[in-house]
Amino acid sequence: MTAPFAGDGVMALMPQEPVSSIDPTASSTSSSTSNAATGRIGSTKSSPILIFVLFHKAIRSELNGLHHAAVSFATDGSGDVRWLSERCRFLFDIYKNHCNAEDAVIFPALDIRVKNVARTYSLEHEGESNLFGQLLELLSSIVHRDNIFWREFASRIGAIKTSLNQHMAKEEEQACLLELTTE
User: Fold this and answer.
1) What is the pTM of this model?
2) Which of 8, 43, 134, 150 to pair with 140, CA 20 to 30 A apart?
3) Domain-by-domain residue ranges, the chain?
4) What residue spans carry the Low complexity bias annotation (predicted)?
5) Is 143 left (phi over 0), alpha (psi -120 to 50) or beta?
6) How far apart, in whole angstroms, are the C-alpha atoms of residue 174 and residue 180?
């Protein structure tokens, strides 16, 4: 059996090649994807905001994998319950730490340019944390894990995926504006 999400998820956080390859002049598909998402941001040296965008990429990848696994459980009952539960908890831990970093570094800088944006994003973080909390509570419940349970689980993962994707897209847009206005 192959490792789940090999090359995706958390692995997306770990550069597979030197960080300088994220430079817009590099010819890697991953760098062109990153640059497309960030406008003209080049490297983590010239733009620390790129690190946050890379975390977003990893979070999206992990969410996609978790959602796929949850849907598999709901439709055909296949998969490893313990693994799925551990991945959900791990993703929530990564997400919380990422949000704390944004709240401490990115949002105060954005708030200088766009009033109340920090508070808005912090409220969104709280709402998303609540969604994760509900998901983890469902996983911890001592209910019979039948098809109904797994459909509910897949639905909650889908809600988190939708919410986070929209939220991260807004953050990236705002952060890119911050990057462009600070030069």
Assistant:
1) 0.69
2) 8
3) 58-181
4) 25-38
5) beta
6) 10
Closest residue by Cα to residue 51 from 13, 20, 18: 13
Neighbour count for residue 180 (Cβ, 10 Å): 11
Q: Are 22 and 43 in contact (CB under 8 A)?
A: yes
Reported as a single tens digit per residue, the pLDDT across 86-101 is 999 999 999 999 999 9
Residue 74, CA distances (Å) to 135, 147, 154, 156 in order: 15, 6, 7, 12
- Residue 46 one-letter amino acid: S
Q: Which two structure tokens, joined as six digits, stand for 93?
A: 């831990």
Q: DSSP letters along 9-75, please? A: GGGGGS-SS-GGGGSTTS--HHHHHHHHHHTT---TTT-THHHHHHHHHHHHHHHHHHHHHHHHHHH
- CB burial string 91-129: b at 16+ within 10 A, e below: bbebbeebbeebeeebbeebeeeeeebbebbeebbeebe
- Fold designation for 58-181: Four Helix Bundle (Hemerythrin (Met), subunit A) (1.20.120)
Where are the alpha helices (H) located in 77-146, listed in sequence order? 81-101, 107-113, 117-140
Q: Which of residues 20 and 175 earns the better pLDDT score?
A: 175
2, 14, 65, 81, 165 from 7: Cα distances, Å: 11, 9, 12, 22, 20
